[in-house]
Amino acid sequence: MTRSRALNVALTTEPAAGRDRLGPLIVTIFGLYARGEDNWLSVASVVQLMADLGVEGQAVRSSISRLKRRGVVRSDRRDGAAGYALSEQTLETLAEGDARIFERRRATIEDGWLVVVFSVPESEREKRHELRTGLTQLGFGTAAPGVWVAPGNLATETRRTLERRGLAEYVDIFAGQHFAFGDLRSKVRSWWDLDELADLYADFVRRHRPVLDALPAGSPEQAFQLYVPMLTQWRRLPYSDPGLPLSLLPPGWNGVTAETVFEQLNGTLSAPAREHALSVIHGR
Predict the structure, then answer these.
(1) Which of 50, 79, 107, 186 is the least crowded, having the fewest Cβ atoms under 10 Å away?
(2) Average pLDDT of each block of 10 consecutive residues along the chain (284 residues)?
(3) pLDDT given for residue 107 in this prediction
């Protein structure tokens, strides 16, 4: 698994399910709270925040060590306290992800389409894997072997991401409209696994709409316990679904419901969750 892939895949919203599933929760905590704290969190504060999510300390330390080995975080001792900072690549990935996660604009037919093709020498086959992984993470579908397609409003993000990863020299990017032939709705269904996307959205709604229905939440700690797992699960969805035009999706697309649940929970829980996290980080 590449470093960037480690940032974008949320494996579960149940942190006690297994130590190998803790990394996404820890990345969420660092992404939310370390960047505003000079890119640093002490080990003690991370352990305490994860304890608030029902995870015991040794499992947290082991998961952080794995994140360090993958280059997601780096050790950083400050004022005698052991801690971790996000790597530069992680910071860049999270900054790009902020817009996708919190400010996503759904595409329209008028945005057109991006088509990406690439050619990689056999001697650099690892680059081919990196390109496929990167395009998948950006939400591209596969129109044909070696031909990748995405909504046109992803042009800037796609170019920036491929340049940052050192992959631009292998790629050509084209933009335009679907001119002919066939029904575009049917093609979109073949380019993306819409059934899988619908299942992912349904699971998100099933887990988190009851939280929305029960709001307002109680204490800042309770808001934190609800918010971090919710955001961890949501982080995966805007990358699996690149914001395809609603006119090309099945009627009553449940991604719209999921987006509404996320936006309302984010608006309600983020501030009190942050209040709790900062109280732990600053020892208040």
Answers:
(1) 79
(2) 31 37 93 94 96 94 94 93 93 87 88 91 85 89 91 91 87 90 91 95 95 80 95 91 93 94 94 96 85
(3) 92
Torsion 213-216-221-223 (CA) sign: positive
3-state helix, strand, coil in the chain (%, to 5): 60, 10, 25
Task: Considering only the C-alpha atoms of the chain, give the largest distance between any 2 of them, rounded to a whole number of Å.
Answer: 66
Query: Which residue matches tokens 């080990």?
Result: 43
What residues form DSSP beta bridges with 171?
118
How many other CB atoms are there within 10 angstroms of residue 208's CB atom? 21
Q: How far apart, in Å, are the Cα atoms of 9 and each of 27, 100, 271? A: 10, 14, 24
Whether the bond between 216 and the residue before it is cis, its omega within 30 degrees of 0, is: yes
CA-CA distance, 43 to 61, in Å (whole number)?
8
Are the C-beta atoms of residues 103 and 17 closer than 8 Å to each other? no
141, 114 Cβ separation under 8 angstroms = no
Q: How far apart are CA 104 and CA 93, in angstroms?
A: 16
